[in-house]
Amino acid sequence: MSSNTRGSWGSRFGFVLAAAGSAVGLGHIWRFPYVTGENGGAAFVILYILCVFMIGVPILFAELSLGRHSHKNPVGAIKAIAPHGVWKYLGYLGVATGLFILSYYTLIAGWTFGYIFKTLLQNPVTFDDFSTNAPLNALLYVIFLLMTIGVVYGGIRGGIERWSKILMPILPVILIFIIIYSLTLEGAMEGVRFYLRPDFSVITGETIMIALGQAFFANSLGMGAMITYGSYLDKKENIIAAGTTVVAFGIVISFLAGFAIFPAVFAMGKSPAEGAALVFVILPEIFEAMPGGLLIGTLFFLLLAIAALTSAISLLEVPVAFLIDERKMRRKVATWLVGGITLIFGIPSALSFGASDFFSNLPFWTDQSFFGMMDYIFGSIALPLGGMLFSIFVAWRWGLVGANKEIALGNETFLGIQSKMWGIVIKYICPIVIFFVFLFQTGLLTW
Ligand code: PHE
Fold this sequence. Notes:
There is one protein chain. Helices cover 77% and strands 0% of the residues. By secondary structure, it is mainly alpha-helical. It has a single domain (3-351), classed as Hydantoin permease (Orthogonal Bundle). Phenylalanine (PHE) is lined by residues 22-23, 25-28, 101, 217-218, 220, 223, 225, 311, 314-315.
């Protein structure tokens, strides 16, 4: 199939917005602030930025070039280089990871959607009652999934690019509005101090692992979303410039999200280390107590819902692109099929917050819910694992000569010192560092 019939971006700007839309999601606005709060504020931020630039960005270039080289989904991209043997299973891992992350991501995304109305209508329902209400969760889940399907259904230009162009510019505007509000609260500066003063004493092996995991999740790396988005890129586009813009945008949004949240948290005398509940429990309390909180709260959850939607569409697009390229399925059929499977796997996740005892406390895994298990396996393990294997595949199987040539198509200057540095990082540093982080994670090595 030629690249034209499978779709392509209308412009570089459209690609950058779509890729930034994929990256900027719940990972930046929900996960980043609470992980930062739990891990010592600024010290964690610095560590995160290091992980993004040392490991994330080089892998992003690898994924984008692999995608554009083949104009294919992750499985097809690997098969174009290694038609036989086991490498193609790395592609399958990516496709499966996209589907499974989407299955629980949609649940949280549905909550953000529900919270827009909860805040706006001043509904006093508590988070516990909200998250254990199975019919409500099912309804929100289906609504959000249908929105995601609706966008992907429209294809690359008419769906993903078009909606990214509409939705993405709204994000920074809402965010800045909330920051101004948050910073003007009494006692806000204490939150700023917490956020900006690094406490390196809290950094451990575990913190490094969390920072690296966050670098993958937040930048949509390690499962082939960027291979797939790269596959719709024109050969004349500059992968380095476009990729760097995407990452920089994400870092700015993450960093700003902290300024929206911590000053308000401290101003209201709350703890920044509340974990995952920060956004759905603590913030609503804060919004309720603040003058003007109704408007700000509604805007905040709208912001989250928009960010989540543009990420969810990239998660859905990976398995859809796989079915279109490899199984010759029509986009509309593929989109409904993947959406249906997502829904089936989403049900146990939706029941993980108390609605079902079994899924809330898995009998075979102490203190772990089905939702927690999915996020651990696919969000925390599969992405860095995929990233490690993609870097090995690109550097050792495809080879740096081929990869360099692809990247240089839109950027001749890459062939100098840049390609040498990238080569060393992708060939040695990325696989080795990720491997060691895994050793820590499994407890085979201790800090
Ligand atoms: N990057 C998205 C977020 O921050 C999540 C995501 C992960 C999307 C992996 C695509 C692939 O919310």
